[in-house]
Amino acid sequence: MKIQHKILPLALEASAACALVMLSFGCADTKVQQAPSVPTGGMARPSFHTAGTPTGKPTGPLKPGEYWWRPQLSPKGPLMVLVSVPEQTLHVYRNGILIGRSTVSTGAQGHSTPGGVFTILEKSREHYSKTYDNAPMPNMQRLTWNGIAMHSGNLPGYPASHGCIRLPYDFSQLLFSATTQGGTVVVGDGKTPVPHLAAHPGMVLAPTDFTPGMLRPLANNAYDWRPQRSPNGPITILISAADKTIYVYRNGNPIGRAPVEILGYGSLGDQVFSLLDGTTGRQSILAPGRAARRWMTVTSSGGSVSSEKIASRLRINPEFTSKLYDTITVGTTVIITDRPIVRKDIKASVLEH
């Protein structure tokens, strides 16, 4: 029996560039440079396994073995892994925000990787196959008890495994360090309907209760504020100059959005900030009557711009910013990008159910 898929727009997909920037409610910045580093230790890379090549591209095509890893974009929150068999890619989301992606090699013909929602049952830095001639499987993360797992392997650029999901060795180490036993991995094979799976994953994970209303345009002074959708957990804020919208996620779920007016000329740039403890002694630019918070610059591209300068170019409904100011906590991440978050290419967006 042929399974029919229903295609819907993916909520809040981003095609953001390398590192993005944060909303500042009046801030003092502390610059911290962070570069992705591959963990050491564990099982050595077998000579025939693909080492992996880091790239600065969070979107666009990847060559076999290429990967992108920016965990600082969303330091805390629930983690989910999405694997697309048709695209031979893997995307990693934390708190609903894309923090990594990689090429993969899934099951060859006759050994296809099954689609569905899986739990990480077991993790082992050093593992050998009991079925296939004691083959080395560094950084193994078991998805089923009958032989399906994610692990380091050879990536020839097409499905070539016996059903497992092969990863570049370096990326397998990074992913192993980020996941926990019991974590969720969603595999889309283009055949099996699975919940909240984007066959073409983007920068922001679609919520499980997605409705088209979540994408409807807002009037200039209107805003959505529904903190009850996710009462607790880490907060990530995204501002898209292209969409002229601010999006707020908590614990991986969208809880608010509002229109943003951009003043002046030139791009806002791509940078990321994290909220520190304390205030600056000045007044907030965006939240009337509030003290300006202190922010740390986590990463930037194309030249760093102070958060105060960025805030001076933004006009957002003060009711919304006041509610947001009272909600954010130390560690909140703000990402600003000139690129769109909401995907315009509806045909390429898939939300299966």
Whole-Å distance between the termini?
Answer: 17 Å
| Biggest sheet descriptor | 8 strands, mixed
Mass-distribution shape: elongated
CATH H level of the domain at 37-203: which superfamily?
A: L,D-transpeptidase catalytic domain-like
Which regions are unreliable across 5 or more consecutive residues at pLDDT < 50?
Answer: 1-28, 30-35, 195-199, 345-353
Strand content: 25-35%
What is the percent of helical residues?
A: under 10%
> Per CATH, which architecture of the domain at 37-203?
Beta Barrel
Overall pLDDT score: 80
Provide the gyration radius in Å: 21 Å
Task: Break the fold down into its secondary structure elements and pairings.
Layout: E1 27-31, E2 53-54, E3 66-69, E4 79-84, E5 89-94, E6 97-103, E7 116-119, E8 122-124, E9 140-142, E10 149-152, E11 165-167, H1 169-178, E12 184-188, E13 224-225, E14 235-240, E15 245-250, E16 253-259, E17 261-262, E18 270-283, E19 291-301, H2 307-311, E20 314-315, H3 318-327, E21 333-337
Parallel strand pairs: 1-19, 2-3, 4-12, 10-11, 14-21
Antiparallel strand pairs: 3-6, 4-5, 5-6, 7-12, 8-9, 9-10, 13-16, 14-15, 15-16, 17-20, 18-19, 18-21
